[in-house]
């Protein structure tokens, strides 16, 4: 019995080590599967049938015509045969529950995911006919998670070096982040990896400054106030309201309060456009979906 017990103790330890190794192997296999998944992603079509000349877009008119989009062929569509028009110079909010397809609209507009059916027109030009890099360079976006790369602050704000310093400082002042940049050491100050030398709110304001420097007629906001405090969110929205007059602004919103003062809203549910119109008019209709959203958020 004593001999059996003396051999049993190391055996238990070996079994524990085996289970630990097996678990770690299972975890690492997820990484291998992800690599294989990315290897199967088709190469983006860089060239296009139609090239752009001059400044485009000039107006900022956005039209979706019967657009259907899927991330994976076996899954239900993220956007299902949706059609709408965003008039030039208007500020439009897109709302809906999680998984409704809000961010999918921007994915389709930037051609991050190809559409299965339908057409997306910007100023009367079918974006599927344009070189994808040129398309993305003509649109501005402020993402949900602000990103700054390692390098100088000037390179982060103006990667192509198209703006003069006075213009960059002017935009930083309008975005209420000029003082923080001066404290950090100016435009030549070194930004640490992921911009950790700035707070989340400051990084988001810097991303807004980068977007405004592009002077695009279309600005997309992808839940850009989701991870920042109320004060910074107010600064961001006030800046957009004052500096984006005549610019088409598409706001993917997670807070109902952020869309109440916009020109129009789109409400999605499971990839289907279920309601659209002016928010104040929809609020007056007790039977509207938007009215029920507002009541639920109180």
From TrEMBL:
Domain ABC transporter: 62-295
Enzyme Commission number, as recorded: 7.6.2.2
Signal peptide: 1-25
Record keywords: ATP-binding, Membrane, Nucleotide-binding, Signal, Transmembrane, Transmembrane helix, Transport
Pfam families in UniProt: ABC_tran (PF00005)
A cellular component term, taken from the record's GO annotations: membrane
Domain of life according to the entry: Eukaryota
Protein name: ABC-type xenobiotic transporter
Protein source organism: Noccaea caerulescens
Lineage of the organism: Eukaryota, Viridiplantae, Streptophyta, Embryophyta, Tracheophyta
